[in-house]
Amino acid sequence: MTGNGSFEPIIVGFTCNWCSYRAADSAGMARTKYAPNVYLIRLMCSGRVDPQFILKAFADGADGVLITGCHPGDCHYVEQNYKTLRRFTLLKETLKALGIEEGRVKLIWASAAEGMILANEIDIMVTEVKALGPLGWKAMAWKPESEDSEFLLAGLARASAGGE
H/E element holding 155? Predict the structure, then answer.
């Protein structure tokens, strides 16, 4: 929260080194302004984003998570962004079962030349997460509270490991 009491979300962004991280860099070089609420973490590929990274970000206080990568068909690692898409689809269902709103996690494809598009998508996500309010997992010291939650998380881990 800021001094005036308005909520400012914390969003963790996992970005592909080859495309979307460079898009963020090009937005910066073009002096394109976008919400400072996103903390970018550069990975070699969006395919490297394990669903446990997202759950850890939420558990450590993030209100939203952004995953960005190369457009499908343009991945430096051939088909890893398709793996990202499969994991993202499974993750959304798991988060829904855990009571996490769909708008708290977003997947964006952005090439290195699409800095303006990425900046706009970041602003949109920040606005959407502000409307949802704080997630509050860190304050609750969240842990799976039921066998159902543990079953869902184990299933997500097994499913996301497949096809690697």
Answer: helix 147-161
Express each pLDDT in 2-52 by its tens digit: 445 589 999 999 999 999 999 999 999 999 999 999 999 999 999 999 999
Beta bridge partners of 39: 12
Q: What percent of the chain has pLDDT over 90?
A: 70
Give the length of the chain.
164
- 8-state DSSP, 31: T
DSSP code at position 52: H
Cβ–Cβ < 8 Å for 70, 16: yes
Question: Does residue 126 register a pLDDT over 70?
Answer: yes
Name the DSSP class of 146: S
Distance of CA 74 to the CA centre of its chain: 20
Q: How far is CA 105 from CA 22, 32, 93, 95, 129, in A?
A: 21, 23, 11, 9, 9
The C-alpha atoms of residue 38 and residue 123 are separated, in whole angstroms, by 9
CB-CB contact of 131 with 123 (8 Å): no
Q: Which residues lie closer than 8 Å to 111 by C-beta, 6 or more apart?
A: 19, 20, 23, 70, 71, 74
Tokens 């001094």 label which residue? 3
DSSP string, 105-129: EEEEE--TT-HHHHHHHHHHHHHHH
